[in-house]
Amino acid sequence: MACQITMRNGLGMAMESRLYKLFYKPMCRAYARHLLGDRPADRIYAFLFSLKSWNKPRYTPHFGNPRSFSEKVCGRMLFDRNPLWTMLSDKWRVRGYVATKVGSEYLDPVLWRGDNPGDIPFDELPLKFVIKGTHGCKYNIIVQDKTQLDQKNRRFKLKEWLSENYCEDKFLGVEWAYKNIRPQIIVESFLEDNGKVPLDYKFFCFSGRAEFLQISFDRFGDASELILDRDFNPIEVWNGLTLYKGEVRRPDNYEEMLQVAESLARDLDFIRVDLYSVGKRVYFGELTCYPASGMAPFVPRGYDFVFGEKWR
Questions:
Q1: Cα 111 from chain centroid?
Q2: What CA–CA distance (Å, rounded) separates 46 from 75?
Q3: Partners of 217 in the β-ladder
Q4: Distance between CA 41 and CA 84 in Å, rounded?
Q5: Sheet harboring 185-189: ordered strands across?
Q6: Which domains occur in the chain, in start order?
Q7: What are phi and psi of 241, to 5 degrees?
Q8: Contact (Cβ atoms closer than 8 angstroms) between residue 128 and residue 146
Q9: Distances (CA, A) of 74 to 50, 53, 56, 120
Q10: Whole-number pLDDT of residue 55
Q11: Which DSSP string do the residues of the chain spell out, in sequence order?
Q12: Is the whole model's pTM more than 0.90, yes or no?
């Protein structure tokens, strides 16, 4: 009997996934692209989007009177058309914001910028570097040894990325902040900590105050995470990735990291500030307006409302 139930659940999930890919995603994207444009979501699109919100994390959302963190992220995606979110999400333009707020010394040096991958001067670049698309998420190529890099393949991938509008072509067409970013490629210096990609410190800042911290370990490999309060005390909450089981040491420059995060978050009701600590230096990573597209599972569920209560 248990085997039969498992098989039925598996078939149901497979069918649900197939319907999601074939019908639901294209329908939502088409509605957002052709009927909404840059306008806030109407009732029809909000209803369509709510179907996904129920599916994961499986509860009926209340976008009109949001209380949880997930509802508020989704509400921002659906209804908030402040051009500030576009500037903060643009991985090139945000550098000017960071330089003004905290100083250019917190920025990873840019080695090259352009919109034609064929112009990237690979021969002139150092052995290690990072290639990024400025107009979306997960447009990253980590190069730790350029002698092993398939340049032709990477240029093809970069052209593919540049042809995409991350808002219109990904997820459900709802992440408006990325819609009007000019697609570009930037090449940055490779930041490393003892020969490895450094830990990613993600500060959840509400009304200019860092309240929670999510640390991402080995994010380009066997990724795991740990969530802590602002005093660096671990919190028993699962947020989607494997929970990190090892010990974590508070960085010596943690107070500086808090100061940088809160300076960048000043005057914003919510923003996630991602930073790195390399040696004794703090480096800026990115600003995130829509963490996990509002779909991160909080376990226990009550923490979704704990985070949401901070967002006023």
A1: 23
A2: 9
A3: 224
A4: 18
A5: 110-114, 185-189, 129-133, 140-143
A6: 15-80 (no CATH), 84-89+194-310 (3.30.470), 109-189 (no CATH)
A7: -100, 170
A8: yes
A9: 9, 9, 12, 37
A10: 55
A11: -HHHHHHHHHHHHHHHHHHIIIIIHHHHHHHIIIIITTSPP-HHHHHHHHHHHHHSS-S---SSS--SHHHHHHHHHHH---HHHHHHH-TTTHHHHHHHHT-GGGSPPEEEEES-GGG--GGGS-SSEEEEETTSSS-EEEES-GGG--HHHHHHHHHHHHT--HHHHSTTS--GGGTTPPP-EEEEE---BTTBPPPEEEEEEETTEEEEEEEEESTTSS-EEEEEETTS-B---B-SSEEP-S--PPPTTHHHHHHHHHHHHTT-SEEEEEEEEETTEEEEEEEESSGGGG-PPPBSTHHHHHHHHH--
A12: yes
* Token duo for residue 174: 């709802």
CA gap 100, 94 in Å, rounded:
10
Locate 65 and state its tokens: 């009177």
Q: Residue 50 contacts by C-beta under 8 Å, 6 or more apart in sequence?
A: 60, 61, 63
Distances (CA, A) of 258 to 9, 192, 251: 45, 21, 11
Q: Select from 86, 111, 82, 274 the least CA-distant residue to 182.
A: 86
Mean pLDDT per 10-residue section of the chain, whose length is 312 residues = 43 64 93 96 94 65 89 96 98 98 98 98 97 97 95 97 98 97 98 88 98 91 91 92 89 98 98 96 98 92 96 94
The span from the first CA to the last CA of the chain, in angstroms, equals: 49
User: How many residues appear in the chain?
Assistant: 312
